[in-house]
Design a protein that fits this description.
alpha+beta, Uridine Diphospho-n-acetylenolpyruvylglucosamine Reductase, domain 2, Vanillyl-alcohol Oxidase, Chain A, domain 3, nine-stranded antiparallel sheet, five-stranded antiparallel sheet, 18 helices, 20 strands, binds flavin-adenine dinucleotide, D-lactate dehydrogenase (NAD+) activity
């Protein structure tokens, strides 16, 4: 039997040479990941048309190999390639399938293919005068808009929940039986899309739920199909905008901080996007260098933290959020927030005098503590860009905190996977109440140091009643002890966390295989549905499918 790469090259004779990689080339390009996992690939292929993908599916069924689709392949901390069975795996790279199709500029509806990155969409909107924001994430400019929505990722612009903003999905269903029966097309569209006989077919792009059973959601955190296009509803650039950074120096004020966030999000829904709350260590990991050196496998001491916090003027907790709306509304909400934040030590406004003066002074005298201030202002500026939908790499240096080989450098496109950063995310949902959050903070601070992992805490409030925490477990990927500690740490957080009611909203590919139980009804139903969409089980069989 010919090798898989030979089958592909015999079939796709018109592809450019660089679109088809053999096992060795594929391993070099696609396997590096922040989890320290190894994956076997037999080949990789880059395709750009629906018809080529359909033919690839046919080949996979005939020859019994697996397809692992990726869009930008940057699922850092979670893994882009899922574990699979004993069959050979072909990586399907969709990065070059990157068309952007305007649906309605007036309504802010736009369709993107898998390869469209945050930067590409941002440039398109800017070049074509679309007054809308790109749904960016902390992962930055090189990441796919579509894949992040399929992962049900979130950001901090007003359309925080990225899948919630997806109105329409087009996908190739890997079951040829459907192709025969449904007007000879392999492309799925919703019940509304199939009824619409107009040329423009607009309504399906603006209505998420279709008609009858809602199917589109099955394409997220799953492997039912290959998604080729999504239409997203963009958030309009507001007439008025300001970001706030609220510093809280007293650790005892965590309860008041949580109440502030909950009430603010409830009272100003639609005006304030989401709110981030970060602890001192997390802030330091963003703005300072690791005092132990990036090669060390040890946590910062209290003395080191105190010294760094003083030098960088970092508080115990910091709240970050933005107000979007008409100028008058922003002004009114700003004054209410200022009053409500009275319990805190300082509130910095992006349009305030403090930032303007700070920039002036630190630009004029960029040394000593002003140098640290300048770095911080730069980070604040980039944070503000993110809240306005401009992709930035401001969050990425975090992944390099324990990487002794490569320094983070925002002047180039950073890639924590190819730079061999070690990172696993623990991303649990937490019940929104003061006591639980206090308990969670103590739990993280007690657990991660046992494994020599720095406890870096961020809470993102997606709604007033829904809070997700992202704990980056950062380790030196080339240190076997550190890697083992990182996995053990994640395991304890996951298992002990479940007992306290903290449950991940997203998991890395190894956890998906190891901790999810095939016995529970939820996953049994997923398996049955998967068998309908993909009866030969050829699309990433191990992805969220225990
Ligand atoms: C410092 C840092 C900050 C981060 N901040 C955020 C953040 O703010 N929010 C957030 O959500 N994430 C964040 N991440 C995590 C992650 O890097 C992003 O979510 C990233 O966008 C996901 O990778 P990707 O878009 O390249 O997806 P890919 O790796 O391309 O795909 C992810 C998965 O989706 C499936 N898939 C992809 N495309 C298709 C398709 N067309 N059809 C079918 N299945 C497909 C694949 O099987 C794959 O397993 C962060 C990571 C780091 C290191």
């Amino acid at each position: 039997m010919p090798a898989v790469s030979e089958i592909l090259s015999n079939h796709f004779t018109n592809l450019p040479k660089e679109s088809l990689l053999n096992a060795e080339q594929a391993a070099q390009k696609y396997v590096p990941n922040t989890l320290g996992e190894s994956f076997l690939l037999s080949a990789a292929i880059s395709l750009t048309t629906h018809e080529d993908i359909r033919q690839l599916i046919e080949l996979a069924i005939t020859h019994g190999f697996i397809l692992q689709p990726v869009s930008s392949g940057n699922n850092w901390g979670y893994g882009s390639i899922a574990h699979s069975d004993e069959r050979e795996v072909v990586l399907l790279d969709l990065a070059n399938m990157n068309q952007i199709t305007p649906i309605s500029k007036e309504l802010g509806l736009i369709s993107v293919q898998p390869g469209v990155t945050q930067q590409q969409l941002y440039d398109y909107l800017k070049d074509n005068d679309w007054p809308y924001m790109t749904p960016v994430t902390g992962a930055g400019p090189s990441c796919s808009i579509l894949a992040n929505a399929l992962e049900r990722g979130y950001g901090i612009t007003p359309h925080t929940d990225h899948f919630a903003a997806v109105n329409k999905i087009t996908a190739i269903i890997p079951n040829p039986e459907f192709w025969e029966n449904s007007a000879k097309t392999c492309l799925y569209e919703s019940g509304v899309g199939t009824l619409d006989l107009s040329n423009e077919k607009v309504v399906d792009h603006s209505f998420k739920w279709g008609l009858g059973a809602y199917i589109d959601g099955l394409f997220t955190q799953s492997s039912m199909a290959i998604v080729t296009d999504i239409t997203i509803r963009l958030a309009e650039k507001p007439e008025g905008f300001t970001s706030f950074y609220i510093k809280i120096n007293d650790a005892e004020k965590l309860d008041a901080t949580v109440r502030f966030i909950r009430d603010t999000l409830r009272d100003f829904e639609g005006i304030i996007g989401s709110i981030n709350l970060m602890d001192k260590r997390r802030l330091l990991a963003m703005v300072a260098e690791n005092p132990n050196g990036n090669g060390s496998h040890s946590v910062m001491t209290d003395e080191q933290i105190a010294e760094l916090a003083k030098k960088n003027d970092v508080s115990e907790w910091m709240i970050a959020g933005s107000i979007y709306g008409q100028k008058g509304v922003v002004k009114a909400v700003k004054s209410l927030i200022r009053k409500r934040a009275g319990f805190a030590n300082q509130t910095i406004w992006s349009d305030g005098l403090l930032i303007k003066l700070g920039k002036l002074v630190s630009n004029l005298f960029p040394f000593g503590f002003l140098k640290a201030a300048k770095e911080q202002l730069k980070a604040l500026d980039e944070g503000i860009d993110i809240m306005l939908g401009k992709p930035q790499q401001v969050a990425l240096p975090l992944a390099y905190w324990r990487n002794p080989r490569v320094q983070p450098d925002k002047s180039r496109i950073m890639n924590p996977a190819t730079d061999a950063c070690g990172l696993l995310w623990y991303a649990p949902l937490i019940p929104m109440n003061e006591e639980k959050i206090r308990e969670f903070v103590a739990f993280i601070r007690k657990t991660t140091p046992k494994y020599k992992i720095e406890p870096l805490i961020t809470f993102t409030n997606l709604k007033h009643d829904c809070i997700d925490s992202t704990i980056p477990i950062i380790f030196d990927l080339h240190n076997p002890e550190a890697r083992q500690n990182a996995y053990d740490c994640l395991n304890e957080l996951y298992e002990e966390g479940r007992k306290r009611g903290y449950v991940p909203y997203r998991m890395n590919v190894t956890q998906q295989r190891e901790v999810l139980s095939a016995d529970v009804m939820h996953w049994q139903i997923v398996k049955s549905i998967k068998a309908v969409f993909d009866p030969n089980n050829i699309i990433a069989p191990g992805r969220y499918n225990p």
